[in-house]
Amino acid sequence: MYFCLVQNNLLQHINSPKELRLLNQKDLPQLAKELREFIINIVATKEGHLGASLGVIELTIALHYVFNTPIDQLIWDVGHQAYGHKILTGRKNDFHTNRQLNGISGFPKRSESEFDAFGVGHSSTSISAALGMAIASKLKGEDKQHIAVIGDASIASGMAFEGLNHAGVTDANLLVILNDNAIGIDPSVGALKQYLTNVKKGTQKRNNIIEALNFDYSGPIDGHNVDKVISELERLKTVKGPKLLHIITTKGKGLKQAEADQVKYHAPGKFDAKTGDLAVKSNKVQPPKYQDVFGYTIVELAKQNKNIVGITPAMPTGCSLKYMMDEIPDRAFDVGIAEQHAVTLAAGMATQGLIPFCNIYSTFLQRAYDQIIHDVALQNLAVIFCLDRAGLVGEDGATHHGVFDLSYLRCIPNLIIFSPRNEIDLRNIMYTAQLGLEQPIAIRYPRGRGVTIDWKQPFSKIEIGTGVELKKGNNLAVLSIGSIAKNITQAISNLNISHYDMRFVKPLDEILLHKIFKEYNTIITIEDNSIMCGFGSAILEFASQNNYHATIKTLGVPDSFIEHGSISELQSSIGLDSESLNAYLKKY
Asked: How far apart are CA 479 and CA 485, in angstroms?
């Protein structure tokens, strides 16, 4: 039995896939139109990831229409495209809180809904997770469907291939849907992307790489034709074993500007929901984004030093390596969503005398931990890691906060770790690193804008392992690392407190630390990294090793996963904003 509802009024009656499945199939294109408008109207004012979700509206509807979710398990790779899924699975009335403090997450999250079968945020996990679920269902004698939706950029990642490789020798009830729109955040790159393009054009034989991995391959089909998608999903429900459906979609579908500029409208910020025009930005002169300081500086340095190369795993716009790709394209490499490969590629280049700047978001470098140790540090190769988005990153939440890098890097021999206080320090450490360091270095810096308008100063070499005194006081000493110094400076402006920017977590400035410990009985460390095993832990170890008995307090990110919200809200929630720091330090 089907609902018979007035046109333009379908979505308001749907609060779960049960209501969706009562609709007549002929009404689904209208529902798709309403769902797109709903997402556009809210994201226009609340911000978020727009283009990916608009591109899979018909697929989202078809999946919940055909499959018995949440019993049938649906996994969205990365999760940028899951807004429609959230709206159709009971979160429509809360969608306006998306990515806001105490609101719903911008990504699928198991604790948020039974329809979110697996928590995601990083790429290429869906096939492995869905395969694990499918094998578990088979062992338990359960008759379920397991569907992984993955994009053409994510499926090129090594982990996705590992999942495909394993699935192909099982009889697991697994359906992989390849959402092929030729773009991730930036345009997809690599041989697989070209292969998929040829399949779409009909210049590549259908007996393809997917079939060679023992998958039942079907497609490519138009992912915006809801009837075709439903028909094929219904057929595939009856096919046993691993199968892959290849659909072709347009990222940003339904909003003209989002279709025309898919990179900018991946997460466009505020825009006019009717026209699609982006909100006009203030003409006020502001400090640059740290990512742009990196981007402009590497171009400047590379023009002077022909051995410099730039590497990024699929984030040339996000990390601003695009500037080098535009000006010096033969020495700037987007390697796709392949962090492990990016690190070892950099290591290989370093063995040949090149100077690789490997730019990876802090949270994504976690995916290449063995390569940092085994391929770079163990061989003491002079790779320059630039870790963008270090610290709390805001609305993307727990999957994207870069709050573990100091902890997971500090234990690695041979590795220098530096965190610039401002844009000038970032420029100068990049300059210093390419002068001939004989070991690897990790440079971590935050998302967003810095503090210095006149940042493009002449280069100055930084002495490795040295800190600086920022303010001299009498009561106690605050030691900090990186851009959190801005909050501390504001917090102690009216307090008689000393402040030292240590700059290097490894090696520590032991000369300066001996001076501090001999002068002060109370020392407080502050960092925007996990309190566990980070900068504060390094200072505690120094004190213990040198038999100092000062009172040491460590402030930082607590031993828990921090959820989403603005950076200022999150800092306030854990006591790292300037007001909270002022109140804390007044007690001493």
From this structure: 9
Give the integer Cα–Cα distance in Å for 22 and 293: 54
Task: Report the distance separating Cα 355 and Cα 435, nearest Å.
Answer: 9
Burial 523-554 (b: 16+ CB within 10 A, else e): bbbbbbbbbebbbbbbbeebbeeeebebebbb
| β-pair partners for 245 | 177, 218
If you average pLDDT over residues 212-225, what whole number do you get? 92
Q: Cα torsion for 293, 539, 526, 298, to the nearest 10°?
A: 0
Tokens of 528: 């925007």
The residues that are catalytic are 251, 339, 367
Counted residue by residue, the chain has a size of 588
The closest of 550, 560, 416, 574 to 484, measured between CA atoms, is 574
Q: What is the pLDDT of residues 129-185, one digit of tens each?
A: 999 999 999 999 999 999 999 999 999 899 999 999 999 999 999 999 999 998 666
**What's the confidence (pLDDT) of residue 208?**
75
CB atoms within 10 A of CB 461: 10
Extents of the domains making up the chain: 11-264, 290-444, 468-585
Cβ(110)–Cβ(118) below 8 Å: yes
DSSP 391: B
Cα distances (Å, whole numbers) of residue 38 to 84, 126, 168: 9, 27, 39
**Domain 290-444 has what CATH class?**
alpha beta
**Burial of 337 by CB count in 10 Å (0-12 exposed, 13-18 middle, 19+ buried)?**
buried
Which CATH topology does 11-264 take?
Rossmann fold (3.40.50)
| Type of residue numbered 146 | H
Please state, rounded to an integer, the average pLDDT across all residues of the chain: 93
Cα angle vertex 339, ends 333, 342, to 5°?
40
Q: How far is CA 12 from the centre of its chain?
A: 33
Same fold, 11-264 and 468-585: yes
547's tokens: 């038999």
* pLDDT score at 3: 42
Which residues, 6+ apart, have CB-to-CB distance to 172 below 8 Å? Answer: 131, 134, 135, 138, 146, 241, 242
According to the model, what pLDDT value does residue 1 have?
39
DSSP state of 288: P
* Cross-strand pairs, 3: 23
Q: Before 70, cis peptide (omega within 30)?
A: yes
**Rounded CA gap, 362 and 390, in Å?**
5
Query: Are β-strands 551-557 and 384-387 bridged in parallel, bridged antiparallel, or unpaired?
Result: unpaired
Q: How far apart are CA 521 and CA 512, in angstroms?
A: 15
Burial 578-587 (b: 16+ CB within 10 A, else e): bebbbebbee
Q: List phi, psi (to 5°) of 352.
A: -100, 15
At residue 102's C-alpha, the angle toward residues 398 and 70, to 5°, is 75
Q: What is the CATH number of domain 468-585?
A: 3.40.50.920
Please list, in sequence order, all residues whose beta carbon lies within 8 angstroms of the beta carbon of residue 386, skipping any fewer than 6 positions away: 294, 319, 357, 358, 359, 360, 430, 443, 445
Query: In angstroms, rounded to a whole number, what is the distance separating the alpha carbons of residues 19 and 578?
Result: 49
Half-sphere exposure of 280 (CA within 13 A, CB side): 3
